[in-house]
Amino acid sequence: MLSTISAKQAVAILAFLAASVHGHVVMTEPVPFTYPDPNNQQAPLSDSGSDFPCKFQAGITPQTVKVTALQPTGNKLKLKGGATHGGGSCQISLTQDKLPTKDSQWEVIKSIEGGCPSDAPGNLSDNAEEPLPEIEYSIPEGTAAGEYTLAWTWFNKIGNREMYMNCAPVSVGGGAAKREVAKISKKRQSGLPVMFTANIGNGCSTNEGDDVTFPDPGADVVKGSQATPGEPVGSCGAAGAPSADTASTSTPASGSDSGADQAPAPATTSAATPAPQAPAPQAPAPQAPAPAAVAGGAACSPEGMYVCAADGASFTRCASGVMSAPIPIAAGMKCTPGSDASNLQMAAVKRAASFGA
């Protein structure tokens, strides 16, 4: 049986479709790469993933208009377009590749879950030039100076299940000296998370009506005040694991440094001289209880809690009151069971060394 709609509903649907076609959201600052056909820049990625990343389609070479210089703090990401699709969730990521490929390593520096790029229901307008709220972001401490590619990725709340991605050439200046990088990296023991991808034929998708919650949003995450959070669907766990490149700069967790494997030499005393008396043992300082293991899908608290598996090969995260499925750790790394719930600690897996006679 065919259903009927009122004239008012028909007008609303046509307005939505018009905005979807002509008012797609696009990044304007940092200044993105340009394409021979501007529609390539505004449209979502192909659902097959053929133009991932950055809508770099085969046979099309994007052009650099300007390399935007980024500051340690106070950077502004600017967007325009009225087809905001009810908002959604978005991320800002960096890669060291000047012309990214499917093999590029993207590291998230900011996540917004809900209300990105707007919390207006439906589409904001059909105006492709509609200015949208600016997103302020910082460059993580310890990022080396040099040229990068910045990506803004967006997962819309309503409409087709899509992934939008705009990319821009950027430069980072005033980075720490090489001798200081190891010291600074101690503040980033978990590394920066890998950029989340979905709806591009990779086995991971988002639900319509949800503001997707990222498997690992990173340290700089903003929650929308009117968000309707929802977990992604499918094989999405690995997308939240720390990247191998960044995690390799992490320092071992407390008590697991390279000197911990060597026992101190026993003290010796002369028979003629009485051995000094050892000081009275002191009670150990109280420690915060380690988070208890929680199975994937079980209710959990507090929000954002990390729990490392006993073998250190995976971890789970409390998101929207439910524990995620186990997320594997990057090769060559392991997490520390019993680490603080709000700061998952990572360490490189020690390799046994052999020496000749």
UniProtKB/TrEMBL annotation:
It comes from the Eukaryota. The keyword Zinc does not apply. Keywords: Signal. Residues 1-23 form the signal peptide. Residues 207-295 are annotated as: Disordered. Residues 276-289 have a biased composition (Pro residues). This is Chitin-binding type-4 domain-containing protein.
